[in-house]
Write a structure and sequence with these properties.
The complex is a heterodimer of chains A (379) and B (471). Chain A is mainly α and 379 residues long. Chain A folds into two domains: 7-338; 344-379, no CATH class. Chain A is built from 13 helices and two strands. Chain A has helices at residues 7-39, 43-53, 57-74, 76-85, 87-107, 113-143, 156-160, 163-187, 190-221, 233-254, 258-280, 297-300, 304-331, and strands spanning 283-285, 295-296. Chain A has a two-stranded antiparallel sheet with strand order 1-2. Chain A is globular, with a radius of gyration of 22 Å. The relative contact order of chain A is 0.14. Chain B has one domain (2-247, 317-445). Chain B contains 14 helices and eight strands. In chain B, the strands form four sheets. In chain B, strands 1-2 form a two-stranded antiparallel sheet. In chain B, strands 3-6 form a two-stranded antiparallel sheet. Chain B is mainly alpha-helical and 471 residues long. Chain B starts with a helix and ends in a 26-residue tail after the last helix. The chains are: A mainly alpha (379), B mainly alpha (471).
């Protein structure tokens, strides 16, 4: 049995934290993008949604890159097997993340409603598909993958679409959608926030049902035992915590306790990832065929020197990252309010005459509220 | 077949990504510099220019960031055998790049874009400098990883894998510092040439107001000097790299020259028409120059391809250790040639924009200069791309010099899998490239923002609790 606390397991846990952090953060910005078409009545609402996550979504996504980089460095074999094995699934996620990434920036660059609608679709799909596929992939990981004796996965994309994994995908999709609704309730005001709140009940119910179903199914399905694995009670308990937190988050957002609701849905994401990680341990790529086909932490890990370097670098720099990323959330802590209709344009500060900025809808880098609309300048 | 497709895919996704990277690194620095000048001199023209080019910076970095994610996935997707072999070493700089650089860039960009009316001007300025620092750190760590592939250091082989013995050796790799200075300076020069081309065009544009002319003339003067200095420094760094290459990768040096036989006091071939190996139809050569470049001596020895190949066979066993010579020979010349043209062009720019007071580019040649500067915007992209094509193609057949052949690094995948992703990337990247170029052209035509002081944006503070909707 592998020693419980060593650099290998520390890095296994740290990478789990990076993934959990990624899904906690990007989870709500995916969610906002997914629910935006439903809760928005017009282009201004849509813009409020996007601007609620605007300053932070890119930083959130870097958690994914850090998790990927850390996996490469600390567990090269895991990184190689995972990316080689889940080839098309990860390609799919990548394509949609690329499309989503540019949609934020491109959307506001041309003042044309059709252009904006097109990028809104891209933004929606770019969030919807990864939100679904991450759940599929992680459920496959906990459920076990049909690995060959060499530890390779040859099943392709269809092999990952086991019913249990699809249920897990629906669970992550609905959970992130709820997380996004709660974030919108927290960060916007007025009708938009009320509509987000009203939508919380159906979305939250669906999230409770799918997540509870996934937890129960994974717990009962069983998997070839791996030497040194944790008792099934640990992941099950974390899974139950997640389900309860989703239910609590739904109730709290309806009761307009937005801060607590966000803490609850966040906890649900973290507890779900805790369940995934504790269920995998000590495997990183568990097999559904024979335990020996799976890949364990010890077999996948880098040598001591690499892990020491990584530990030192992480110990020094992670606090800084948390500090300045936290500061961003502090700077943009205020709720967004819908600009009064009469003030859809910027007062031309200090000078009369039309501002040349009405040239197109590009408001980037200016404090402008005009952005998307043909400016109606009031005297 | 898998190998060929995987190599094409890597070529496509890296070359495309690297159209955007230098612009991002360079423009972040230039915009930060302009914003600093605006604040320190309370100069509205610099403020307007910084916003104008800041907008282009944002269009660019959006594509740069998303195409960068592809690369982090690419190693595992198509090169998993390589990933397993180098992961102990290659993974660390990649993870550190994400932790130190990507977080910094993305977080502070959010603050810079959305924080203009929320942060004090000084703090706002600090955020763009943090973005710039992030882009440079990113270059440092990814080049640390690449330099290790060119010249592996600080490792030992254990159980068929490269294992880290000394992390400082990886950061102290001489190849890294050559490549880092060359690449970052080239990125600065890229943004400089872009700014020069656009500024010169805007000064000459018929409907330009005197106000705009004056601002863009300022931009042209500044960017011409900036481009000239940085491109000269790129050449200095490149010259340093040549000697490192002669020491650590002699085959690449010989391939750059298509020098088949070891020579003393070797001449440098400027251009060759005809077969590179047999007797060429036409050639221009500069005597002794290659020896000077390679080892700073008039009659120094430069090893030839055939001699090196024989030595490599003795060392590594049977096989060809020769890169594709026409590719290395010509990409090297295209890179150097584009760089020289950039120096000439920017020097011309300094001359043409020498008189501030006239409010105009000088002389009858100004129209020709403007045209040249506009076409000259292509040069850095050509130089950057062929520079990397030379560096990476010149390392072949090795993926890690002397340790692992590229052919051994590929994932176990079906041809259909790789063809699908390759086709997917080509389509998506073409669409992205077209949209990006179109948006850049639009952005370059925009009038300058009205600002009345170098202070916060117009309208700032007037909206009370309502922050700006940027997206």
């Amino acid at each position: 049995m592998a020693p419980f606390a060593n650099l290998n397991t520390t890095w296994f846990a740290l990478i789990g934290l990076l993934w959990a952090g990624y899904l906690f953060l990007e989870g709500f910005d995916f969610g906002v993008s997914i629910v935006a078409p439903v809760v928005s009545r017009d282009d201004t609402d849509k813009r409020l949604c996007l601007n609620a996550i605007g300053p932070v979504w890119d930083g959130n996504e870097v958690w994914l890159l850090t998790a990927g980089g850390a996996t490469f460095a600390a567990f090269p074999l895991w990184y190689a097997r995972l990316f080689n094995g889940f080839y098309l699934a990860l390609f799919l996620i990548l394509v949609f993340l690329i499309a989503r990434g540019v949609s934020f920036e491109f959307r506001n660059k041309v003042d044309d409603l059709r252009w904006r609608r097109a990028w809104d679709w891209v933004n929606f799909l770019g969030s919807f598909v990864p939100a679904l596929v991450w759940g599929v992939a992680f459920t496959d990981l906990v459920h076990g993958i049909p690995l060959s004796p060499g530890g390779r996965y040859y099943g392709g994309l269809p092999g990952l679409l086991h019913p249990i994994a699809i249920l897990g995908g629906l669970a992550s999709l609905t959970l992130f959608s709820l997380h996004g609704l709660v974030f919108l309730s927290l960060k916007t005001s007025g009708d938009l926030a009320s509509r987000a709140r009203r939508l919380a009940l159906p979305v939250g119910s669906a999230a409770v049902a799918t997540l509870a179903g996934t937890v129960a199914w994974v717990a009962s399905a069983g998997r070839p035992a791996v030497v040194g694995q944790l008792t099934g009670a640990v992941p099950l308990a974390l899974g139950v915590v997640a389900v309860v937190a989703v239910a609590a988050g739904t109730a709290l957002v309806i009761a307009e306790r937005d801060g607590w609701a966000f803490a609850s849905t966040g906890l649900a994401v973290l507890a779900s990832m805790g369940a995934v990680w504790s269920r995998m341990f000590p495997a990183v790529f568990p097999a559904s065929t024979h335990a020996a086909n799976g890949l364990t932490i010890a077999a996948a890990a880098s040598q001591h020197n690499t892990l020491v370097v990584m530990t030192v670098v992480a110990a020094i720099f992670v606090p800084f990252v948390l500090l300045y990323q936290g500061w961003t959330y502090w700077v943009f802590r205020k709720r967004l309010t819908r600009p009064p209709e009469a003030r859809t344009s910027v007062p031309a500060a200090g000078a009369g005459g039309p501002s040349p900025r009405s040239h197109d809808g590009d408001g980037a880098g200016s404090g402008a509220l005009t952005g998307g609309r043909p400016t109606t300048r009031h005297a | 077949m898998q190998l060929a497709l995987a190599r094409w895919e890597f070529a496509v996704v890296t070359v495309f990504h690297f159209f955007f990277v230098p612009v991002t690194i360079g423009l972040a620095f230039l915009v930060a510099t302009m914003e600093t000048l605006a604040l320190r001199k309370q100069d509205a023209e610099w403020e307007r220019l910084s916003r104008f080019f800041g907008r282009m910076f944002l269009i660019n970095i959006a594509v740069g960031v998303v195409t960068g994610i592809t690369l982090e996935f690419q190693f595992g997707l198509n090169w998993s055998a390589y990933s397993i072999f180098v992961g102990n070493i290659f993974g660390a700089p990649l993870a550190i790049e994400a932790l130190l650089a990507f977080f910094m860039e993305s977080t502070f960009i959010g603050l810079w874009v959305f924080g203009r009316d929320r942060l004090s001007p000084r703090l706002h300025l600090a955020t763009i400098w943090m973005v710039s620092l992030g882009t440079v750190l990113s270059a440092l760590f990814i080049l640390a990883a690449n330099s290790w592939m060119q010249h592996p250091v600080g490792y030992k082989l254990v159980g068929g894998k490269a294992v880290l013995t000394n992390f400082w050796a990886i950061l102290g790799n001489p190849v890294l510092w050559g490549a880092f200075s060359h690449t970052v300076l080239a990125a600065f020069a890229t943004a400089g040439a872009l700014m020069l081309g656009i500024s010169a065009w805007r000064v000459r544009r018929k409907d330009a107001s005197p106000e705009e002319k004056s601002a863009f003339l300022k931009g042209a003067r500044f960017s011409a000097a900036f481009t000239c200095v940085t491109t000269l420094l790129v050449a200095v760094a490149g010259d340093m790299q040549a000697r490192l290459m002669d020491t650590y990768q002699p085959m690449k040096m010989a391939a750059a020259e298509a020098l088949y036989h070891t020579a003393h006091g070797a001449s440098f071939s400027l251009i060759t028409i005809g077969n590179l190996k047999q007797k060429p139809v036409f050639q221009i050569r500069v005597p002794h120059l290659l020896s000077l470049i390679a080892n700073l001596s008039w009659n120094g020895t430069v090893q030839g391809i055939d001699n090196l190949q024989a030595a490599d066979v003795a060392k590594y066993g049977k096989g060809s250790y020769i890169p594709v010579i026409p590719l290395t020979y010509w990409s090297f010349r295209i890179m150097v040639g584009s760089g020289i043209l950039m120096i000439l062009l920017s020097a011309w720019g300094i001359w043409a924009a020498r008189r501030r007071a006239s409010g105009q580019l000088e002389g009858t040649g100004a129209i020709w200069f403007t045209r040249a500067a506009m076409w000259g915007m292509v040069l850095p992209f050509v130089a950057n791309s062929f520079g990397w094509i030379f560096t990476e193609a010149g390392r072949q057949p090795w993926v890690v010099w002397g340790l692992m052949l590229t052919a051994k690094g590929v994932s176990s995948l079906t041809v259909a899998d790789i063809a699908l992703t390759l086709g997917g990337f080509v389509v998506i990247y073409t669409v992205l490239g077209v949209i990006d170029a179109w948006l850049m052209v639009r952005a370059s035509r925009r009038p300058l923002d009205q600002v009345y002081a170098a202070g916060p944006a117009e309208g700032a503070g007037t909206e009370g609790e309502v922050p700006g909707l940027i997206y």
